[in-house]
Amino acid sequence: MVQETTQPQAKKQAKSLTHHNHERIDQYYWMRDDSRTDAEVLDHLRAENAYCEAQMAPHQALKTQLFEEMKGRIVKDDSSVPAKDGNYWYVSEVNGDDEYAKHFRATDEALSDKTLLLDVNQLAAGNEFYDIGDITVSPNEQLLAYSEDLDGRRIYTLKFLDLQSNTYLEDTLENTEGQVVWANDNKTVFYVKKDQQTLLGFQVYRHVLGTPQADDVLVYEEHDRQFYMGLGKSRDESAIFIYLAATETSDQLMLNANNPSGEFTSLLPREEGHEYGLEKFGEHVYIVSNKNAKNFKLVRASVESAADPSQWQELVAHREHVLIEGLELFDSHFVVTEREQGQIRFVVHDYQGQSYHLNFDDACYFATIGNNPEPSADFIRIQYSSMTTPNTVYDCDLTTGKKTLKKQQQVLGDFHPEHYHSERLHIRVRDGESVPVSLVYRKDKFQQDGSNPLLQYGYGSYGITIDPNFSSQILSLLDRGFVYAIAHIRGSEMLGREWYEQGKKAHKQNTFNDFIDVTKALVEQGYGSKDKVFASGGSAGGLLMGAIANQAPELYLGIGCHVPFLDVLTTMLDESIPLTTNEYDEWGNPNNEADYQTILAYSPYDNIKAQAYPNILVTTGLHDSQVQYWEPMKWVAKLREYKTDDNLLLFKTDMDSGHGGASGRFKSLHERALEMAFFIALLGK
Question: For domain 41-72+549-567+604-685, which CATH number applies: 3.40.640.10, 3.40.50.1820, 3.40.50.2300, 3.60.15.10?
Fold first, then answer.
């Protein structure tokens, strides 16, 4: 790659940051601009974009080819499987080159009288970014509420549509979290309002249609800013819930949906360390709880006795090696989502104590419970895929387990599942633990002799598990001989709750060690060439990328680092930054000296040093509300100052998007094509 422009050089302006008698000098603190209007900051970001574009210009044809390949696999005219909710069947469709879906409903499954509810393409017209947060129809099925975000900051405006006249109501609710829940009177809604500084949802308001937002009533405010807040409705439609979740503690409040002017009350007392999810169904509440059950148990109680654990009836006991992940309730059965040895499964129970497993064929796969609005249904809708099986929708008979195929994702072009092979490995790492790895490759392009390029992906935070699902985009790498691997490192819940706890706070270094040791083992076992190894991660996975770049740069030819959390210590010391206080139970609170030292030891920004680094591509969004743009901006500037190599360091900022990147089903492919072109081009250097 010939450098056609000069690397942008950022000015240095020392700022002293002192905590616990330890001083850090941050030369690039000036890059933070909460208003995103500072001309010097914006000019520097544009200079970085121009430099990135110039460096990748020789590979524009490759990037275009990759984009067209990925786009060419997508069916232009596609639709969801209709789902019955109340008196209607709901479906979404995409057509032609439309970036967004149209939403319809009909009175029968054949959609013979299909009526358009929303055309998101029309709503998004004229906006560089557009996202629908929630679409909810009133209980009487005559009104529709939806929320929209125009800049990627995840601050949503609620709007209301009369479906009988297809006209908008005057009601517009600003500065919301995006969720809206209807009371059963069809005129009252509840929504969460955001703190403008931290972007944290912390207040629940009640709004009566036809009244100004200024008259809305505050019905609940959460004063502990470690909690995220959400809203929902019970399975039996009789209750409205406020969900409160910190990293290690849950709380849930309930209101009678038939009495919207009443008060929300807690069914269980808030207890530090108690995580649970509660669902109301008829006369009972069902609770998935970690009380004396690290991997959770399922219990049932009456509404009146829910607060007394001695009154709980155990339906599914805690097991040391089985994690309970979810619950879906039906009139005739309930279905529990479990994970054992990293693999998801569904266990169908009747209310008389009998149960069976729903079985699938692949060695490793991803499956999740789909859209099941009707508890009276005699089937459960499941979405299923593997690294070689496109997304598939089944309706599974609750009594027999028989699966009915409703739809499988069509992949256009020369795709044949039998050309690809997926494996699940277990790799022993430095402290003796065994880390699961899911990988896939094209059979006729692979020799287990250490000659193939290898792309390893990881995340490893918040207990989020990255399952081995299907990606038509990855085919562009597999068809060029890449092996693609997902390292299920500690910090996820792949192997249960303990797997998560061993990758957070004081144990965070395990996450990085696991990823590095998996890379070494895959090379040693011949899955990849030691000179052709790439790594990629985003958000907290971007922190992982920053850490491995500092700790094991010699292992990687190239790294993709997306919307990355890199300046961990500075961010976690600043409670004005969105999400900081919510994260103390994940990373630790650096106002405590022990946590400060733990974070200082791995924080990517603080551990940049004079050494050779891999080729690195960094991407972010100017309006990112999760990880602020200045974190990667500062990191890149400091890397340019310290690194001793001539490898590429490219930084691209989408000036219109937020944490989720570009909106739309095709536009976002440009970002993926950029990373793929970056990696493939490096093989030809």
Answer: 3.40.50.1820
